[in-house]
Amino acid sequence: MEIFGIPTQALFGQLLIGLINGSFYALLSLGLAVIFGLLNIINFTHGAQYMMGAFCAYFLFTRLGIGYWWALAIAPLAVGLVGMVIERLMLARLYKLDHLYGLLLTFGLALIIQGLFPNEYGTSEIPYAMPQELSGGRNLGFMFLPNYRAWVILASIVMCLATWFVIEKTRLGSYLRAATENPALVQAFGINVPRMITLTYGFGVALAAFAGVMAAPIYQVNPLMGADLIIVVFAVVVIGGMGSIMGSIVTGFALGLIEGLTKVFYPEASNTVIFIIMAIVLMIKPAGLFGTQR
Amino acid sequence: MSVVHELATSAASRAEGLAHQRIATVVMIAFFALAPLVAYPVFLMKVMCFALFACAFNLLIGYGGLLSFGHAMFLGTAGYASAHAAKVWGFPPEFAILFGTACSALLGLVTGLLAIRRQGIYFAMITLALAQMMYFFYLQAPFTGGEDGIQAVPRGKLFGVLDLNNAWAMYSLVFAVFVGGFLLIHRAVHSPFGQVLKAIRENEPRALSLGYDVNRYKLLAYMLSATLAGLAGATKVLVFELASLTDVHWTMSGEVVLMVLLGGLGTVFGPVVGALIIISMENYLAQIGSWVTVVQGAIFVICVLTFRRGVIGELGRLIGKPL
Lengths: 294, 323
Known about the structure:
The structure holds two protein chains of two kinds.
Chain A: E1 2-3, E2 6-7, H1 8-39, H2 46-64, H3 68-89, H4 99-121, E3 137-139, E4 144-146, H5 147-169, H6 171-181, H7 183-188, H8 193-219, H9 227-240, H10 245-265, H11 273-284
Antiparallel strand pairs in A: 1-2, 3-4
Chain B: H1 5-8, H2 18-34, H3 41-64, H4 72-87, H5 93-115, H6 120-140, E1 157-158, E2 162-163, H7 167-189, H8 192-202, H9 204-209, H10 214-240, H11 250-263, H12 270-285, H13 291-306, H14 310-319
Antiparallel strand pairs in B: 1-2
């Protein structure tokens, strides 16, 4: 069976890979959007924190024998805690300054973190076994679907929607949105805004670490695994605009799919297609598809 | 809105400081003229290329208030273009450099039209993404030699007479390019064009209401910065006889930000001092491998948290005059 002269097996295979990549784009750009909303900082350390999540899962397994499922809970907590310490000690001192200083600081932190890992473990990739329960796959008739990949897509969608629900539909989320608009007023109502900022940063970072744990069995653990990814995610963020939570989720998945399709029809451009889309979006709608200029 | 808002008011924007800057310029030129007597010329040529690169970057952030995180694309594009022109087409060195610089200027025009549509951190993210796109392009393009780069680029004879394989001839060329570029930036900053640029940085809506075509000025500043960064890249390729992916990678974009931040954002001499410090540091730390990255990151963090004026900014504050 063929579609546009491409075997369906190959087409759906690439679409699946696209959806997987899209899952990571969505999780990471969502974390960036949540952090940016409250802190007005673009978290350049996001890629490094994603990598820390993957390494954390790997260490938990090799040093303590703790498996994938526990790692999925422990790694985001641990990396999120480190993030909160960073926010308290460093980022909190920059809020009164130009936002670009936050970018420069987190870039420096990313360099430090990424530089520290290769020293100890070499830059070679480290394999991380996928959980027993999710090995194997099923035949859907038109393609073969590995169970683990299906799980990644499902878990990412659930996580993204849960985040959207908390921010848009709950009382806690309404405080958060209010503090985004006017932190001084929210503080005057007796809500501890600095603590909320710390927790928000921790949560955004935990999302990155969660993505890192899920990536560990498919992409293999490597100190620079987040370095190039984060630049693509920046482009995703520019395309989507950071105004809306749902916007960054949808943009993330959509761009993953488009990238997958490009791999089928014009593989030479698969590395650059997201950047090209960014250029086009900037020409038509500079604020981003879901964004508002501010 | 600019990063250097608080810093730049003390630096460069006050005309009365010009006398001291003139003395400092003479000192700097004398330093680079005499230094090869005691230091390794290739090291100094590398410093001057990066100093010009950093000055070009500083023009954009210091006077335009725009932080580019993709300046490596101009350094690398000019490098590849001039290397290709010199090696494959047999261009003489002066035309190879001009061709490379022109390519960067053109890239500056195209990417500038896109990037100046947003400001602040968006501008930084957009330039970073565009530079990454260029990186992937050069990684795959047939004429760049991929991971090997373009090696053994001939230095040739300048104007058909001066053999650049002679270390002193090469040094003189790099020296002339650096000093020329530095003075050109100085001229641009103190011209009416530079004044308008500063006005836009301080208060964009007001500059707009005064009838200035804000986007045209920003684009011009961006292109000038891209062109001079390209000039630095093309010259650097002739020095090392090599154009490689290192020059277009995002780490290079980060490095130039670091040089300017350490030397002093928006100061006249900060980028030169920053380039000198960072290149020296890399020379000494080269044997300890990836620790260089850690040290660079640590300098970033320290500068942002406690040392935002940079070396020259602090020095200027000590003597009470902008440098």
